[in-house]
Specification:
The protein is α/β, with parallel strands linked by helices. The chain is 38% helix and 22% strand.
Length: 321
C-alpha cells in the first residue's frame, strides 16, 4: 500500500488545520507519481480532473467501457480484434475542478481513524493539490448545516488556498442540526458548474433525498462528477453484542447516550440496510453517467485518495474490513 511507503502523521483525528492541509502538497506529489506507475491509462493518471473525452487531439484507442460514447467506437479496430474499442481524445482547455466538502453535523463523527469531516477535508486538500499540479483551476463549496462558502475556480494556488481557508473556518463553527443546506448547495452547484468541469462531492450523503437527487439532472449532465461516499465503520455494521457509550452534540449542546446491540438479527438488518443504501447511490450516479467510490475513516488516507484518482468503486466489504 502507498500508505506504507509514505508515512503521514496528524495531530488530531477530530480536526485539521490550514497548515496541515497546505503541507499535504508533498504527499499529493508522491501520490501522483505512484498512480502514474500503477496504470498507463490516461484517465487513471495523476490528476483528479485530467480525464479523456471528446476534443480535438486524438489520444488513443482502448477497449470499450460502460458509459463510453458509442459514437466514438473505432469500428476498424473492433472488427480486427473482435472486441469493441473506442477512440479517446484529450480536451485542450484547462478544466475547472470543483471540490464540494460536507461539514454538516453528521460528518463530525468517527469511531476509527478520524472524523468523517476531517477525512473529507484531507482528501479535498490532496485532490486539490493534484489538480493544481495539472494546471487546472480549482474552486468549490464548503458547507455546514447553516453556513456555506463558495469559491470560484482560479488558476494556480489561489482557488485552492481559498478553499482550504474555508475548510479551516467552517470547522470552527458550532455544529448545528437540521437544515436543508445539502439541497441548497446542490442548487448553487447547478448554477456555478460549466460544461466540461470536474466536480468531486465529498459527503456521507445523509439527507441526500429526492430534492437533492433532482439537482443531478440538467446542467450537471455535462460535468464529470465523482461522488465520494465518506463512511465510518459504524455506518457499515454494528459492533459485537453489548452496550457502548456514545457522546456528541450539536447546536452547542453536548450529549451522551448508550448504544445497545442486543441481537444478531439487529446486526444483520443494520448491515443489509447500509448495503442497500450504498447500492442505491451507486445506481443513481451510474444512471447519470457519473462515478462513485466509497471510502472509510479507518482506511489509510493515501490509499483512499488513490482509489478516488483511479475511479475505483469499492464495496461495503472492502471499506469495512
Amino acid at each position: 500500500m502507498l500508505a506504507n511507503a509514505l508515512k503521514l502523521s496528524f495531530s488530531s483525528p477530530a480536526s485539521t488545520s490550514l497548515e496541515e492541509l497546505v503541507n499535504l502538497r508533498a504527499a499529493a506529489s508522491a501520490l501522483q507519481r505512484q498512480v502514474r506507475r500503477r496504470s498507463a491509462a490516461p484517465q487513471s493518471g495523476g490528476s483528479v480532473s485530467r480525464r479523456l473525452g471528446r476534443g480535438l487531439d486524438f489520444a488513443e484507442v482502448r477497449e470499450y467501457q460502460p458509459g463510453d460514447d458509442i459514437r466514438q467506437i473505432d469500428w476498424k479496430v473492433t472488427a480486427r480484434t473482435g472486441t469493441a474499442h473506442t477512440k479517446l481524445f484529450v480536451e485542450e482547455r484547462e478544466r475547472p475542478v470543483l471540490l464540494l466538502v460536507d461539514f454538516r453535523a453528521n460528518m463530525r463523527f468517527g469511531t476509527q481513524g478520524m472524523y468523517k469531516s476531517v477525512l473529507a477535508a484531507r482528501l479535498a486538500a490532496l485532490l486539490g493539490w493534484c489538480a493544481v499540479a495539472a494546471n487546472d483551476r480549482v474552486g468549490g463549496f464548503v458547507f455546514t448545516d447553516d453556513w456555506h462558502s463558495e469559491i470560484r475556480p482560479q488558476s494556480g494556488r489561489r482557488g485552492l488556498m481559498e478553499l482550504l481557508r474555508a475548510i479551516d473556518q467552517c470547522q470552527r463553527r458550532v455544529p448545528m442540526s437540521g437544515g436543508d443546506q445539502f439541497v441548497k448547495t446542490m442548487r448553487r452547484l447547478r448554477h456555478s458548474v460549466h460544461a466540461g468541469s470536474t466536480v468531486v462531492l465529498l459527503s456521507d450523503f445523509a439527507g441526500f433525498d429526492d430534492s437533492a437527487q433532482k439537482m443531478l439532472g440538467s446542467s450537471l449532465h455535462s460535468a464529470d462528477l465523482l461522488a465520494v461516499h465518506i463512511t465510518d465503520p459504524l455506518d457499515h455494521k454494528l459492533p459485537e453484542l453489548g452496550s457502548y457509550p456514545v457522546s456528541g452534540g450539536a447546536d452547542g449542546v453536548h450529549s451522551s447516550w448508550t448504544l445497545n446491540v442486543s441481537s444478531r438479527h439487529e446486526q444483520e438488518l443494520y448491515a443489509s440496510q447500509f448495503v442497500s443504501r450504498q447500492q442505491d447511490l451507486k445506481s443513481l450516479f451510474a444512471q447519470q453517467r457519473h462515478s462513485y467510490t466509497c471510502v472509510s475513516t479507518h482506511m489509510p488516507l493515501l490509499d483512499s485518495a488513490m482509489n478516488i484518482l483511479q475511479r475505483k468503486s469499492t464495496s461495503s466489504d472492502e471499506t469495512s474490513s
